[in-house]
Design goal:
The complex is a heterodimer of chains A (about 260) and B (about 350). With about 260 residues, chain A is of the alpha/beta class. Chain A is built from eleven helices and seven strands. In chain A, the strands form two sheets. Chain A has a five-stranded parallel beta sheet, with helices on both faces. In chain A, strands 4-6 form a two-stranded antiparallel ribbon. Chain B folds into two domains: about 210 residues, no CATH class; about 120 residues, no CATH class. In chain B, helix 8 runs antiparallel to helix 11. Chain B is globular and about 65 Å long. Classes of the chains: A alpha/beta (about 260), B alpha+beta (about 350). Chains A and B meet through helix 2, helix 6, helix 7, helix 8 and helix 9 of A and helix 9, helix 10 and strand 10 of B. The complex binds iron/sulfur cluster (SF4) (5 copies). The site of one iron/sulfur cluster has 13 residues of chain B, from helix 12.
């Protein structure tokens, strides 16, 4: 394979992941020599948004119909499509708004909503097939590195897919849930950060989003047993990853209630 | 066997001097208070041995068998990639103050790594260590070594025990230590230490303290017919109810277990592709991806995974290795966020069967 052709696309997010990417390629100079950056609004002046690409990196969540349309085009023009960072992989912070009805949120933020065309927040896997996920807020270096290597070797990336507790115990940390009665989200959160927060005495707040098939109900029950009030529990499961199946099973009920619910509860 | 077994008695001061002496030639890794818990740490200036600890978070065996290690390195040359063996660094270390559950835990782990198939990496790491045991008198809330048979004082259990497992064994007799040595390494470690031979009173005091420690257990595990009891109950509802209702698949239980040996193999590749390292990383049967193979996952439910952990420790292990995979240290239930307890599960299954 020649130099892989890369396109970077940004949807609703803080752009922190792209800064992370720029930081990464600045510091790992070999990358720039090894890839061909074809499109990226923050990185190039190119307007070749139709590629074709060997790899499309998608940052941000979908919150407008137009974004979804473009995303579908990108998918068609790309060999591999990778979700990059929490907003793209699980809805991230922008999906926090999903817990309330859209109109309610918009009128709270904007005086005039006539030019706002938002829909609810969607992770990109709801629109297109995703070949790999680089999780994290911002996207984590370990998986980013794995992605680049896999692209160079044309192999399937081996992303970190276990929960934060694994990294926490590998560091020998005593568990904060048990020793400090802190509501740590580590057991349901995908690892890759090296258990950054628990290693510094802080409860994980799931900035990497859920581990696939996490047992969120059991952790929510544990939080309840620890004396955490229901709204605190829901907040923890809706800060990141609210649209995902794993977190929605806890926080989704609250969303239904606040919007009147199916049966007007 | 040429093992020499001898005993003497050392005062607290003599013991402290002895540790200082050891520190000159070895890195002494001992239980040290770290916040609310105790961990094995290299004894540095100002760090004191926590003589009264109950249990460390990470077991002694996993001080040797570490979370990540490089097994082999491939380096690019003109003629292609060349494999280089990675020899773990040689360090003279003493694992100090290891309780009997952990001494047995290490021996159990070694039935895997140093049994029929020798794991070269583990073997060369292990060769760095001498072990000083400490009979246990501070029984924790979750400890049940006495009902398994591995503690609280070190002895023979299911085909293993002294003189294997430790080179020196200490017993706190109150103001003085009984120091027993096993084999030549033990004798060498004690060289240059002033201490007197034990009197019958000292031996009597040891027996008295052992009996007293046994009285202090609050937790037990009924091991009668245990392996087949579990075998008969692979479809017991508790696997589903406890597994789905409480298990987080967080792997804390297996990470802290002294006998869990499972690992995954990863490859770490340098960006210029000049070096590829093959590393082994602790893995756990509680993780969903553990049993993912081509075409499916043979333990895709939490029910199946929890059953694997409990039955491996208390049933399958006996068939596999001739001893339990559980030494009764109580770590898994201590560090399980939702308090899942394999002894309670075994008791629940037994009670249900007896009721029938
Ligand atoms: S502190 Fe958090 S991440 Fe660490 S073991 Fe406990 S629950 Fe898991
Ligand atoms: S511990 Fe949790 S909140 Fe902290 S960086 Fe890691 S995933 Fe994010
Ligand atoms: S299968 Fe599970 S319980 Fe058995 S050794 Fe491996 S991790 Fe431990
Ligand atoms: S199964 Fe639990 S109690 Fe038994 S040795 Fe392992 S960690 Fe200790
Ligand atoms: S520590 Fe507890 S919750 Fe976590 S995997 Fe083990 S049994 Fe399940």
């Amino acid at each position: 394979m020649g130099k892989p052709r890369i396109g970077i696309f940004k949807y609703s997010c803080c752009a922190g992941c792209q800064f992370q990417l720029i930081y990464f390629i600045r510091h790992v100079a070999e990358i720039l020599g090894a890839i061909d950056l074809v499109y990226g609004k923050m990185e190039t002046e190119s307007d070749a948004e139709d590629g074709p690409f060997d790899l499309a990196l998608i940052e941000g969540a979908i919150t407008e119909a137009e974004q979804a349309d473009q995303l579908k085009r990108v998918r068609r023009n790309s060999k591999y499509l990778v979700a990059f960072g929490s907003c793209a992989t699980n809805g991230g912070i922008p999906a926090m708004k999903n817990i309330q009805p859209e109109l309610q949120i918009e009128t709270r933020v904007y005086q005039d909503i006539s030019r706002i065309h938002s829909v609810k927040t969607h992770p990109i896997y709801e629109y297109v097939k995703v070949d790999a996920q680089v999780r994290g807020c911002p996207a984590g270096e370990r998986d980013l590195y794995e992605l680049v290597i896999s692209l160079l070797l044309d192999r399937k990336p081996n992303m970190v897919e276990h929960c934060v507790c694994v990294e926490c115990k590998m560091k020998g940390n005593p568990c904060l849930l048990l020793t400090e009665n802190l509501p740590c989200m580590g057991p349901v959160t995908n690892a890759g950060c090296g258990a950054l927060c628990p290693s510094n005495g802080r409860a994980c707040y799931s900035c990497w989003g859920p581990m696939s098939n996490a047992n969120s109900m059991a952790l929510a029950q544990k939080f309840e047993d620890m004396g955490l009030p229901p709204d605190e529990i829901i907040r923890r499961f809706s800060l990141f990853g609210f649209p995902t199946y794993e977190f929605h099973m806890v926080a989704g009920e609250e969303a239904a209630r606040s919007s009147g619910g199916v049966f007007g509860r | 066997m040429t093992d020499q077994v001898s005993a003497r008695v050392a005062s607290v001061e003599q013991t402290a001097e002895w540790i200082e002496l050891l520190r000159r030639d070895y890195e002494v890794v001992a239980p040290v208070k770290t916040g609310k818990t105790t961990s094995f740490r290299p004894l540095a200036e100002g760090l004191e041995v926590d003589w009264d600890y109950t249990i460390t978070t990470i077991p002694a065996s996993k001080t040797i068998y570490s979370p990540q290690e490089t097994l082999v390195r491939f380096a690019r040359t003109e003629e292609g990639y060349r494999a280089e063996e990675v020899v773990p660094e040689k360090r003279k270390r003493i694992l100090f103050g290891v309780h009997p559950c952990d001494l047995h835990g290490t021996l159990v782990l070694e039935r895997t790594f140093l049994g029929e198939m020798k794991d070269a990496n583990y073997a060369s790491l292990r060769a760095n260590y001498l072990i000083v045991g400490l009979n246990c008198q501070s029984i924790g809330e979750k400890c049940f070594c006495a009902s398994v048979g591995t503690g609280p004082f070190y002895g023979y259990w299911m085909g293993q025990g002294p003189p294997q497992g430790c080179d020196v064994l200490l017993t706190d007799l109150g103001g003085r230590f009984l120091v027993e040595t096993f084999g030549v390494n033990g004798v060498r470690l004690l060289a240059g230490v002033e201490a007197s031979p034990p009197t019958p009173d000292d031996i009597g005091e040891k027996l008295k303290r052992e009996a007293a420690a046994k009285e202090r257990f609050r937790k037990s595990l009924d091991t009668r017919d245990l392996p087949s009891l579990l075998r008969r109950n692979l479809n017991h509802p508790t696997w589903r109810i406890t597994g789905e209702g409480r298990c987080l698949s967080c792997t804390n239980c297996t990470m802290v277990c002294p006998t869990c040996f499972c690992y995954d193999i990863w490859e770490r590749v340098g960006l210029d592709l000049s070096v590829i390292e093959r590393i082994r990383v602790w893995d756990s049967c509680q993780d969903e991806r553990f049993a993912e193979v081509h075409g499916g996952n043979f333990r895709s439910t939490r029910e199946a995974r929890l059953r694997q952990f409990v039955c491996h420790k208390l049933s399958y292990w006996v068939e596999q290795f001739g001893c339990y995979g559980c030494v009764g240290c109580g770590r898994c239930m201590t560090w399980c966020p939702t308090g899942i307890d394999l002894a309670e599960i075994a008791a629940e299954i037994r009670a249900d069967e007896e009721r029938k």
